[in-house]
Amino acid sequence: MRTKIIVFFLFFLSIQHKTWSDTLSHYSAIDKNQIDAKGLWIEIYNRLKEVSQKDAKKNPKNFFHIADLYFQMKDYDNALFYAVKSLENYKLQANSTESDILNAEVLIARAQIKRKNYKVGMAGLRGILSNYQDNKYLHILLTLYFEMANVYYSDVDSKDSAELYFLKVQSIMNKYTNLFNPYILAEINFRKKKIDKAQGFFAQSITQAAENNNHILEFDSRIGLANCFIFRSLTDSAMAEIDKAASIAEYYDYPYLKLQCYKMYADIYRLHANFDTAYLYFEKYLLLSDSIGTNQINEISERLYNELKLSETKLQTEKLAAENSFQLSIILLLAISFIIGTALGIYMLSLVKKNKRLRSEMEIYTEELQVKSELLVLRADELERLNKEIKAIHQAYKNQMEGKDQIDIKLKEKSKSIMESLLYAKNIQEALFPPENVVSRLFSSFFILWKPREVVSGDFYWYKESGRHIYLALGDCTGHGVPGAFMSMLGISYLNEIISKYSGIDSGKMLDLLNDKILESLNQSGSQKVLRDGMDISLIKIDIQTGECNFAAAYNNAYLVKKNENNTIEVDDLKADRRPIGLFGKTNEAFGEIKFVLTKGTKFYMTSDGYTDQFGGENHKKFMKKRLRDYFVQIFDYPMYYQKIFLNEKFLSWRGSNEQLDDVLLIGLEI
């Protein structure tokens, strides 16, 4: 109750046109002495953002303060968006000061640099420096010099330029003691590998942050101090600082700060060959990254919706004002018709250009797949060679106990080498998969839950656009790990080859051709040594204009979940043919097809059997399809990004301490 009262009080202050800094200073004082409520900072921020959206023209500084807060929280995409908004509003207002415009321009340039758009960011910084070198802006000049030094230190050929700007930073701080900033000095000394000096300045910065109750500065300073300890191989001290930084990120619930901690944990554990823990943090990193990406898409959609509503309100006001004049109504109607016609023309032209660009991107993407496939084959040969060496070392260990310590060292080196090779192979395999954001742009909601049993996986997904049709496939190859990854590479390559030759082909015919190619490539149709390998697969073809679907599958069922006329949720099984791709039973029969229309609001799911075959629970039984179907009903009304998190948590809870038995892949979509 106390927390709600404080939030309402702060919200009331912002409505009374208090500045952002005043409001945050109120919060800071209360937080230091009274509040212990996780997430309150974000709640206050959201309330103030709502007020700023309504009051932007009267007080454009609100947009700048939102941008600045996003920048501190490491959300540089949103920081750039709101900084541009603030600059646009400043330029529309006659009473905007030179300082207001300058601050917005500086934040835009810094956000571009943080987004690794160095060329644009540096051009912005140079432009600002050429126009603003007055003593009244020394605090901004200090920031500019620091950012330029940082960028130049990243370039081996620009170290002299970096040193020049570092000297300018020092000169300003020496002359104006009120501008002394230990964090800036710590960062630049760390860049120059003067670790002892950097460590001392980071410690000063932590003290300064605590005195000013600046938790974000404290987080950055502790991460910097941890990097100093890592550089000096003081792992325990580094972990202690990361733990303190992580507690700040968790307490205030800052996702980008959490990501930074997860990555540092994963890197440290990997360097010390604790690969299980490293992979655990890497998985946390990936899951949170996916969640952040989805939230950003939702926030962009919300922005567009709010701008649309604002436009609709404006048009409605104009319409009511013009009702007393028939002639004005006619003129307004003609103007709106002209605007809509022009907008539609521009939109159609942009679609044509976008289609050409996407086709070009897909051609480049296909060429990259070929190169990465070859790299995966080469890496697999290296893995086979390393496995043979490890077997030889193990045999020597059994036969001769002398030199045990030396053998242990070699085993660790080889294990580390194998893990690094597998991680590299994982990167290549993920590169073969189409990016999730490319697939999701054609669906109103979409998710992919991919959990390899080992580092690389025998489960894969594939996506292609062909004219007015979308093709989406989920494959489950025999085996897992490296053998399964090889089969997944074959499946992706052959699907790309088939669709390039037969545009608009139906899903059943496509599986027939895929089956022929697998039989041929694995010598399953000849007299040579036969490999009894193959894959289960489900494949859907969607007409993006009508929603008509053509579905075929080999052993992989799919699910349609929708509300019926009685407003109850029902789950329909799309039955697959009871044979896989490859040499199992009859191979000369054509695959069957199921046709249906995917209407708005209907959910479609494809899954490999790794999810439902997992053992766990209180009685150590299989998860089973019925339980998954029940979950589909339970989460029907939730957005896809939440469904992904829900299904992942249910799987982990069911598995418990049991070993994951197979690769897991689950895809959900809604048109």
Protein described:
There is one protein chain. The chain has 671 residues and is an alpha+beta fold. Among the domains are: 141-177, no CATH class; 181-293, Serine Threonine Protein Phosphatase 5, Tetratricopeptide repeat (Alpha Horseshoe), CATH 1.25.40; 301-358, no CATH class; 433-670, Phosphatase 2c, domain 1. It is 65% helix and 11% strand. It has 23 helices and 13 strands. It has helices at 2-15, 20-33, 40-54, 61-72, 76-92, 98-114, 118-131, 138-153, 159-175, 182-191, 195-211, 215-231, 235-252, 255-271, 275-322, 326-399, 404-432, 436-440, 481-501, 507-521, 609-612, 625-634, 640-655; strands at 445-451, 459-466, 469-477, 534-543, 548-554, 558-563, 569-574, 581-582, 594-597, 603-607, 615-616, 621-622, 664-670. Strands 2, 3, 4, 5, 8 and 9 form a 6-stranded antiparallel beta sheet that branches. A 5-stranded antiparallel beta sheet has the order 1-13-10-6-7. Helix 6 runs parallel beside helix 8 (138-153) and helix 12 packs antiparallel against helix 13. The protein starts with a helix and ends with a strand. Residues 1-41 and 526-530 have low confidence and may be disordered.
